[in-house]
Amino acid sequence: MDKLYRFSKYVIPYKWNLVVSVIFMILTAIFSVSTLALIVPFLNLLFGQVDLVAEAVPWELNTESFLHNFNFIMSDIIVNQGKLNALFFVGLLVIITTIFKNIFVYSVKYFMLPVRTGVVRDIRNILFSKILSLPLGFFSEEKKGDVISRMSQDVQEVEASIIRSIEMLLRDPILIIVYLFALFSISINLTIFVIILLPVSGLIIGRIGKSLRATSLKGQKKLGLIISHLEETLVGLRIIKAFNAEKKINHQFKNTNNTYTRLLLRVFRRQQLASPVSEILGISVLVVVLWYGGKIALEGTGNITPSSLIAYLAIFSQIINPSKSITTAYFNLLKGLASVDRIDEILDAENKIYEKDNAIVKRDFDKSIEYKNVSFKYDKERVLKNVSLSIEKGKTIALVGRSGSGKSTFVDLLPRFIDVLDGEVIIDGVNVKDLNIKSLRQLMGIVSQQSILFNDTFFNNIAFGFDDAKEEDVIAAAKVANAHDFIMELPEGYQTNIGEGGSKLSGGQRQRISIARAVLKNPPILILDEATSALDTESEKLVQDAIIKLMENRTSIVIAHRLSTVKYADLIVVLNDGEIVEQGKHEELIAIKDGMYKKLHELQMY
Questions:
Q1: How far apart are CA 455 and CA 140, in angstroms?
Q2: Could you tell me the residue ranges of all domains in the chain?
Q3: Domain 355-443+525-536+554-606 identical in fold to domain 453-522
Q4: Average pLDDT in the 128-157 region?
Q5: Contact between residue 53 and residue 72 where contact means Cβ atoms under 8 Å apart
Q6: Backbone angles phi, psi at 377, to 5 degrees
Q7: What is the mean pLDDT of the chain?
Q8: Over 90: is that where the pLDDT of 252 sits?
Q9: Domain 453-522 CATH superfamily
């Protein structure tokens, strides 16, 4: 119930749709009963059991007044026009009530559809906003494929299971209540007997769905693994083929897929068991009611005639379908709640990168960046240990070291992609935790080895984050990044779509578009994360020329494995196992006997 209560907040914005839908559901139920109730006068006419009514009574809001006046109208038609015309009149009423019933059925669907589609849209929007707000560290723990599965499959499961179940759980009880009211008006004793029978069948059905939710949750998790496998395979297909690992990867995928299929089979079998069990129980109850009702009619112990018994059975038979639907809705609800659990895991995820109230909006960088006794760890492994460093405005700092030495973690602390465990990062004397996050990141431009481009045009990729960027500014940025010439060689120029992740471009071209984006931003601080380590010599020269232009009069933090790219840095900082082991200019560090920098330099010379 707690999960349903929490889920209700997504439905509340559509409360008026629900109210209108419920009104039409009530009208649908009333006209459904009216259609079936017309069986009684129809059969009475056929069997010659019509009791003529001579006078009408005033109309009131009760069944006695309605039935009396209806019988009066029927009597008048029989006396003045004959029984055949009376039969025609009853048949016409059946058609009219059926038409109205279906108009109301459509009206229910018309007003419920915005609820179904709107709730799914809202959950996706909230989930996507939450994903954007979460720190990068969250996605190192959660596989991207699993996150995508929650965003697509689990949200769709909510629509397929819970929203449809809500519609059934609103509609079907209304139908059952109206049908029961009609049954009570025909025979109180028989209806009491029916009410005693129905909970017994409900208890039997309830036992079937006990483990459905847990099984569904396991199935959704396995589906996330399948999508993760697929994503990893597509990204790493070149390596898989190069190492002849197709068989191994295929085996891993099949194992995960088979486990998911087995879980899905268990879920479906339990789901499919609901309908036949409820139908068997429903027919059994119907037979018992037929026997008991027939007994009352034959013995004359109750106020029920053969024609009204048939109408009673017809109305009672209509209770079976909504009762079955409630059962199905219950099973679907359990299945859908498993998806809600997985969605909530993301929505409830703690965002450890939070902004203080009245955070300082910083628009300029004036003096220096300081790392004071900074430590950081992923899980239990410390990747930075008591690091201290001061970076003056306008200086270029190069970070070098083996893979895993903490270079990327060091720079990620500055824009607060992650936060320090101990110590503090300070800009112009202010702790970055005291700054407005948006204004902090606005001070920085980032160019990484893996160029992050979007499935859009050159123009929109360069102007990313700038909705009001001017064409001349974008072109100027591209020229600085040595990208203008190859862009203009294409027929559509800056309006050319570059494909998913820039798939239509070479590595060097992608890198230069990333640099152009940073140039347009014109930030006072640059973070160049391994910006040239993935390029060939010609591309690297073009990119290096662009970077040199970009770094003019800026404060730059450069990470590079190729030490030739950092020779002219104002300060080279050597990291090893999360600690600063050496720092100085190239000439100073190369002169240190058995120094880490010297060893790295010598390794690259061979």
A1: 24
A2: 2-347, 355-443+525-536+554-606, 453-522
A3: yes
A4: 76
A5: yes
A6: -145, 145
A7: 78
A8: no
A9: P-loop containing nucleotide triphosphate hydrolases (3.40.50.300)
User: Any idea which residue has 């007003």 for tokens?
Assistant: 111
User: b/e per residue, 288-315, with b = 16+ CB within 10 A?
Assistant: ebeebbeebbeeeebebbebbbbbbbeb
User: Could you tell me which residues are beta bridge partners of residue 529?
Assistant: 448, 559
Hunting for tokens 């820039």 — which residue is that? Answer: 502
- For the residues 297-305, what does the mean pLDDT come to? 70
Chain CA centroid to CA 76, Å? 63
C-alpha to C-alpha distance for 357 and 61, rounded to whole angstroms:
61
Place of tokens 């404060």: 555
Instruction: Report yes or no: 561 and 533 within 8 Å, Cβ to Cβ.
Output: yes
- Residue with token string 């006068």: 41
Coil vs helix vs strand at 576:
strand
The CA-based angle 603-605-606, given to 5 degrees, is: 75
The type of residue at 495 is: Q
**Which amino acid makes up residue 464?**
F
The mean per-residue pLDDT over the stretch 457-465 comes to 86
CA 474 to CA 465: how far, in whole Å? 12
pLDDT in tens, 55-101: 666 666 655 665 656 666 666 666 677 767 777 777 788 888 889 98
Burial of residue 357 (CB within 10 Å: 0-12, 13-18, 19+) is exposed
Q: What is the pLDDT of residues 385-431, one digit of tens each?
A: 999 999 999 898 999 888 778 888 898 899 888 888 899 999 999 99
**Exposed/middle/buried for 547, CB within 10 Å: 0-12, 13-18, 19+?**
buried
φ, ψ of residue 338 in degrees (nearest 5): -65, -40
Residue 433 pLDDT: 92
Closest CA to 7 of 160, 163, 172: 163
